[in-house]
Amino acid sequence: MTQYVIRRLLLMIPTIWLVTVALFIIIRVTPGDPVQIEFGIEGTPEQLAARREQLGLNRPVVVQYADWTSRMLRGDFGRSLRARRPVMDEIKERLPATLELALLSFGFGLLVAIPLGTLAAIKRGSLLAKAVTGYTLASIAIPGFFVSTMLIYFLTYKWRVFETPRYVPFFEDPITNLKNVILPTLALSIGTVAVYTRFIRSSVLEVLGNEYIRTARSKGLSEWVVVSRHALRNALIPAVTLIGLTLFLLWEGAVITERIFNWPGVGRLIVSALTNKDYPVVQAVTFIAAISVCFGNLFVDICYAYLDPRISYVRRR
Fold first, then answer.
1. Nearest to 72 by CA among 291, 267, 235
2. In this structure, are residues 152 and 261 in contact, taking their beta carbons and an 8 Å threshold?
3. pTM to 2 decimals?
4. CATH no. for residue 115?
């Protein structure tokens, strides 16, 4: 296993390098000039030229990429063109809010989806199974921004169940933090719960038809033991793949959710950076997201070996 992890870590290097090259090219060929956006229509040609010279935007793209890469390897992602601050300071300020929202949504999604999908598989054809199927189809079909808007309208303004969410750091006021994070977490996790539930239901249904499940039942084991010890563990193996791949979607969903709920996270930062063509911020956030996806996939592969002892990553001679 150790050798496999080392090989995967080494393979991440060219993958991340290709991501940085593609990102660097794409963001510079898209329409828009960050200097023109900064000065607006009042900027003179001399001011624009001087600012581009100061930022190094008048140099060849290859030279800019080499300079950015060398600084990035030293942990320096540059300075935000808009805030005039180090990019990492901008990200560090907003990362706790995004991580809290994403981790709570991920945990809530698993906590609800695993028992709900399992029950829908065991009670196949029942009213519960039909209700779960209807919920998953509706949640997948309805856009996330619409769900967020409806939650704010009904639960905040119409029924007054929650106050208008505003971010308060957890260590500053834990109670207020948890109260305000409920609504954004619910909005971000509704679609995730639906996807996980549907996939787990399908996996459990497939496993329940196997021969070893019938053998376990013939030995007189209770249905709870058969499902929890034999069916669910094997059913989670393909589900882990989906869970690992959808971790990145939490970052994507956070962009919309944070924008709607005015949540001061990385999602709002990247939207503002894209609007203002803030190259250093876009490059840094995308680079961090690419690394998180790579490590998420590695974590999925390690979970395979834990869930199924038959899976081995040791090379056999």
1. 291
2. yes
3. 0.84
4. 1.10.3720.10
| Predicted pLDDT of residue 197 | 92
- The 3-state secondary structure of the chain reads CHHHHHHHHHHHHHHHHHHHHHHHHHHHHCCCCHHHHHHHHHCCHHHHHHHHHHHCCCCCHHHHHHHHHHHHHCCCCCECCCCCCEHHHHHHHHHHHHHHHHHHHHHHHHHHHHHHHHHHHHCCCCHHHHHHHHHHHHHHHCCHHHHHHHHHHHHHHHCCCCCCCCCCCCCCCHHHHHHHHHHHHHHHHHHHHHHHHHHHHHHHHHHHCCHHHHHHHHCCCCHHHHHHHHHHHHHHHHHHHHHHHHHHHHHHHHHHHHHHHCCCCHHHHHHHHHHCCCHHHHHHHHHHHHHHHHHHHHHHHHHHHHHCCCCCCCCCC
The answer to whether residue 233 is domain-embedded is: yes
Neighbours of 254 (CB within 10 A): 24
Summary mean pLDDT of the chain: 86
Average pLDDT over residues 123-127: 89
Domain that includes residue 182, residue range:
94-265
Any idea what the Cα angle at residue 204 is, between residues 200 and 209, rounded to 5°? 155
First to last CA, the chain: 16
Number of structural domains in the chain: 1
